[in-house]
Write a structure and sequence with these properties.
mainly beta; 57% strand; 121 residues; seven-stranded mixed sheet; single chain
Length: 121
C-alpha cells in the first residue's frame, strides 16, 4: 500500500508564493520520476513540473522561471516552490510518482488527492 500526502495549497494574492509538498509512504522500494500536475475548472490536467530520481527537472513553459521542483529522496518527498503566482495558476495541484514496491516488480503510477491553489488578482 502506497500513500501520497500533499500539503501547502492555499489562497494567495497575485505575485505571492506558495510551497507544495508531497510525501510518499508505504511499501516503497524505489521511486523514479516525481512530479506535479494541475487541473483548472473546465480544463484538462496538465504537467507543471517533473523531476527524475537523479534530480533533473522539467517544466511547463508557462511556469519556467517562476516555479522550482525539488525532491528529498531520503524522505520520499517532492516539493514545488511557486513564486510570482498569477491568477491563471489557479487549479487543483496533484502530486504524481512512479515507483515499484519490490525487487523484480513493475513500476506503477500513483496520484495524490490534490491540493487547491487559488491566486486572486
Amino acid at each position: 500500500q502506497v500513500q501520497l500526502v500533499e500539503s501547502g495549497g492555499d489562497l494567495v494574492q497575485a505575485g505571492g508564493s506558495l510551497r507544495l509538498s508531497c510525501a510518499a509512504s508505504g511499501s516503497i522500494f524505489k521511486l523514479n520520476p516525481m512530479g506535479w500536475y494541475r487541473q483548472a475548472p473546465g480544463k484538462q490536467r496538465e504537467m507543471v513540473a517533473t523531476i527524475t530520481s537523479g534530480g533533473s527537472p522539467n517544466y511547463a513553459d508557462s511556469v519556467k522561471g517562476r516555479f522550482t521542483i525539488s525532491r528529498d529522496n531520503a524522505k520520499n518527498t517532492v516539493y514545488l516552490q511557486m513564486n510570482s503566482l498569477k491568477p491563471e495558476d489557479t487549479a487543483v495541484y496533484y502530486c504524481h510518482v512512479v515507483l515499484t514496491t519490490g525487487w523484480g516488480k513493475g513500476f506503477n503510477d500513483y496520484w495524490g488527492q490534490g491540493t487547491q491553489v487559488t491566486v486572486s488578482s
